[in-house]
Specification:
Elements (H helix, E strand, L loop, with lengths): L2 H20 L3 E3 L2 E8 L6 E10 L3 E2 L3 E2 L4 E14 L5 E4 L3 E4 L5 E19 L6 E2 L2
Length: 132
């Protein structure tokens, strides 16, 4: 992992933990929104930082994100299946990127997983769209 990439990821984790400690996040369906900000220098774009917590063995519905999603696995292990690649298993300490619009499914084993995610999207777009 490059030094810059590691620094960025550690910064995201530190910000996440600080926001959680303040008791400000809002939670919905295993996703806790930690921070949301409109980008002043990128008209119409916003960044949403969140914590995805999956307890025990689980599989997400097939879905995509209208904007790109960056993630860092804090705990556990996840397997990500996408439309364009074979399933990939990630362990704690691993980062990933999901491009906009590409569907994927996320599975966990019995230990579950905790992941910090950062999503960049157009203001007003949903963060997740379930695919039938």
């Amino acid at each position: 992992m490059s030094g810059l990439r590691a620094t960025i990821l550690l910064g995201l984790v530190a910000i996440s933990l600080t926001v959680v400690a303040r008791g400000q996040p809002t939670t919905s369906g295993g996703f806790t929104e930690l921070h949301r900000v409109e980008l002043a220098d990128a008209t119409g774009l916003e960044v949403v930082m969140g914590l995805v917590e999956r307890s025990g063995e689980s599989t997400s519905p097939k879905h995509y994100h209208p904007g790109g999603e960056f993630g860092f696995l804090l705990e556990g292990e996840v397997t990500i299946t996408t439309e364009s690649e074979s399933p990939v298993t990630l362990k704690a300490g691993t980062s990933f990127y999901q491009p906009p619009g590409g569907w994927h499914v996320v599975s966990t084993n019995a230990t579950g997983a905790r992941t910090v995610v950062v999503r960049v999207l157009k203001k007003g777009q949903p963060m997740i769209v379930v695919v039938d």
